[in-house]
Amino acid sequence: MVNTRAPGTVQTPTDSVDAFWARNELIPFLMTVFRNRAGYSTWKHSNWERSIKIAEQNIDRIPFYEDFPSTIERLRLSLTNPCVLTPEELTKFSRLADGPVQVVVSIFVRHMICHGKYELHSLGVNPSPDFPRNQESAPDHAKAPDWKETEEVQRRIGALTMKGQSK
């Protein structure tokens, strides 16, 4: 059987948000990316569920009309790892990422309802394998950090901090 799904999607469209997907992909993703946004750091699952219900009821009123899988991926990256986006993508998607949270929720919900589920939380900060990024030709400011190098620096800082506290 031929796989005819759009890249990034994992199921066909539906009339409402799949509760399992919302609980395991969308809500953990939202809790992660908006944990430092004023007013959202204390939000629980129930708050996000309410926001998702509002989005379901208003999917025809979203002021952003694109919801291709590649658009959803770039919005996801603008929230998790904007350094991998091009300057043009940053300009377009940072307005959404920095804008009202309900609009972001609504865009993800509309995509799920109209086109099917999309991996959000499970991809972490990495680009989707369905939409690889060309890091070799990207300018230095757009390259993702070397996470192993970052972890090593954090380990060294932690060791220095511990050494300073023992004096």
Give a topology summary:
Layout: H1 19-33, H2 45-57, H3 69-80, H4 87-97, H5 101-115, H6 147-165
Number of beta-strand segments: 0
The number of domains: 1
Mean pLDDT: 80
Largest sheet, in brief, is: none
> How much is the radius of gyration in Å?
18 Å
Assembly state (oligomeric): single chain
Unreliable sequence segments: 1-7, 141-145
Which band does the percent of strand residues land in?
A: under 5%
Distance between the termini: 66 Å
Helix % is 40-55%
Overall geometric form: globular
- Which structural category do the helix and sheet elements fall into? mainly alpha
Order of helix and strand elements from N to C terminus: HHHHHH
Distinct helical segment count = 6
Give a short summary of the structure.
The protein has 167 residues and is mainly α. 51% of the residues lie in helices and 0% in strands.
Would you kindly provide a written description of the structure presented here, covering whatever features stand out?
- The structure is a single chain.
- Helix 1 (19-33) packs across helix 2.
- Helices cover 51% and strands 0% of the residues.
- It is globular, with a radius of gyration of 18 Å.
- It contains 6 helices and no strands.
- It has one domain.
- It has helices at residues 19-33, 45-57, 69-80, 87-97, 101-115, 147-165.
- The protein is an all-alpha fold and 167 residues long.
